[in-house]
Design brief:
The complex is a heterodimer. By secondary structure, chain A is mainly alpha-helical. Chain A contains twelve helices and two strands. The two termini of chain A are 38 Å apart. In chain A, helix 4 packs antiparallel against helix 7 (150-174), helix 7 crosses helix 9 (191-219) and helix 9 (191-219) packs antiparallel against helix 12. In chain B, helix 1 (2-39) crosses helix 12, helix 3 crosses helix 11 and helix 8 (168-176) packs antiparallel against helix 9. Classes of the chains: A mainly alpha, B mainly alpha. At the A-B interface, helix 1, helix 3, helix 4, helix 5 and helix 7 of A face helix 1, helix 3, helix 4, helix 5 and helix 6 of B.
Chain lengths: 284, 270
Amino acid sequence: MSLKNPKLLLAIPAIALIFIFMILPITNMVEMSFRTPGISAPFGDAYTTMHYDRILSDGYYWGVLLRSLLTAGAVTLLCLLVSYPIAWHMSKAKGMKAVLLYACIASPLMTGVLVRNFGWMIAAALNGPLNETLLALGIIERPLRLLFTQGLVILALVHVFVPFMVLPINNALRNISPTLIEASSSMGANRREVFRDIILPLSFPGIYPGMILVYVLAVAAYVTPALLGGQMVSYMPTLIIGELTGTFQWPFGSALAIVLSVSTILVVGLFTALTSRLMERSKA
Amino acid sequence: MSEMTNAFPYRKTVNIGFGMLIVLLYVFLMAPLVMIIGASFTKGLMIEFPPQGISFRWYAEFFNRQDLVDGLFMSLRIGAVTAVVTMTVAMMAAIAGRVLSGKLSGWFQLGMTLPLLVPELLTAVGLLFFLYKIQLAKTVLGLQMGHILMSFPYAYVSIAAAMRQVPQSLEEASQSLGATGLQTFRLVILPLVMPGLAMGGIFAFINSFDLYTISLLLKPLGGNTLPLALFDFLTYEFKPTAAAAATLSILLSIAGVALVQRLVGLQRAF
């Protein structure tokens, strides 16, 4: 280690920023989750595990947690289905066309979540374009109530996270050497076999981080369920923010946030274990 | 040969099907933005798409709404400070990161992007209690620190990528010719990483402009950012004014995308 280099001192402001305003606060939150409820303040002085007991013994919280985890899982899978063809198509494009396609991915990515969700509010209105299209196609007979449904929340979340999945998959696909594909097709593999045995395994280094990132972000998404889910369905993030800003139950809100984080980490760990076994099998 | 002639029509339908799928997916990506822009020109009183007639009245209405305009200015101010601070701090960190090699460099990179990898909700909840503890709760400075933290990784990633393009030998050459560290930075490194630095600033600004959860929990007394003001507006009034406000936000990100394309090219940036 070359810690003697004076240039390393230049990292101090950045490290301080992340340490003081992120690591310390999150550690602090863990401590907060063990505090007793406050009477006149948001939290008390003594320590207790009562918040965790309450969450883990109440079926209501289990239900909301399960809904959050499952919804994020559905969002992640749908994201993969939408992103893979786009990433594939992008990886083939060159020149001005490629720039335009990148702009199509980058513009939604750089437009705020709230703004994009608002777009879905317009689309899903009773006399909005989504209903009009379905009516015109004869799929439905009268307009559907789409706003404030779980389906719309999932659709909007997929829209929010697609760019996060397209970009890593596109990078992985671009890194696949075309000679490899030529070699395997000259050895008699058909298109489907080339895809299954060469392209899909080699795009995995993009699929895996993309899926993890989308899952972790989707579990904790707050704006979309709050705006498009209405009061009908509750997810963990809406519950957490409600406890913190509505009823000022800081210790209980922290405990909810930690339960959500720990279960997310468990899901990600399980997924990693499963996929690494799958990868080893496909290599063999 | 016969196999090829048999496969050909099948392949053609598959290609047409794939083409249609791709078009549909791009429509899915762009539709919400197009609908907002379209709805902002609505002539009538209700949000509608496609709009009936063209009018700019909702833009005028937006600039007459004190709460939304206040939010816009607050977001612009916080975004500007965020861009300047993150560019400076990330530039320094990127110079330091160059010294490290191998595994250590990987860990450093991971540490610097941590605020991006941990969900905003978690950081926001932690910061809420922490700012309360250090007596910065409900102040603009507290909110500003939250925005700087959340936008820092975007600035760092672009600047560090630009730094990697600068050959280390140039630095050594300049130093062996007698330039001080500061001179080497100002005359050799800075001009070369300028596009990456600017791009980092743009990303940081736009990210800060759009942050919601962290702003909601840390908002100062009596102050709202544009997304917060817009959310409040949308929960009570579903009027085209919101479409006008959202269109301004979309135009900002399109300008950002165009600028990034000019500076370094989108393919290298993403």
